[in-house]
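Fold it.
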Amino acid sequence: MLDTMTRVFARTALALAIVGFTAGCKDKCRERGECALQGRCVSRGDQCIAGSDDDCRKSEGCRRDGLCTMHLGLCIAGKDDDCRLTEGCISRGWCQAREGVCARSDEYCRGTDGCRTAGQCSGRGQQCVATRSEDCAQSVMCKKFGQCAVVDGGCEPANEGDCRGSAQCREHGLCSFVRGTCAAEVRADCEGSDDCRDLGHCTPVEGKCKAERFLDCKSSNACIHEQRCTPKFGECVREP
């Protein structure tokens, strides 16, 4: 009888020790910074993991980044509602849950200066990027620099027409499409430009228009109005 009672007390003590050990581990996890920051408040072996949505919702990661839903022991952005009241949504447009994080929405990106100037009107991850040629074609960078087609999330020139329709073609002679960019390739590019008329930049040199010949300068406004009639280092200057 005594042996039986001894075994019962021993099993009870062992069970209480296991419970106490497990509780101690959980307490240690809840006391660590990763519980408050990341919602990892429950012990799993030698690691602390998120045990419930409640763990996640109480964390700084939920308030700041929308990581409010528990998934496989981690706190993630599981739905748009996780993101909408976060600091990231209010200040940076990270308002949609995509692949476990709060990402920028198309709606936010379309209201940014990057959409107007560079065609970056679509949300991808936590950035605004260009995904549609229509957005590039309506951008300031298309009108000024011929960057009218989508290339790797941005807008770039794609053909001769993009370059010749740009302001930098009319102003600086960068009218030819050369290896993915707009450049001055032939004399006709430069001779039709404002810089040729005003500054004597009428000769293509390494992709840009410069004053290289006396004729470039002699016929320019720089010579007519300011007596800068001699080409030197690509510019029209006054003779000494």
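The two ends are 123 Å apart (CA to CA).
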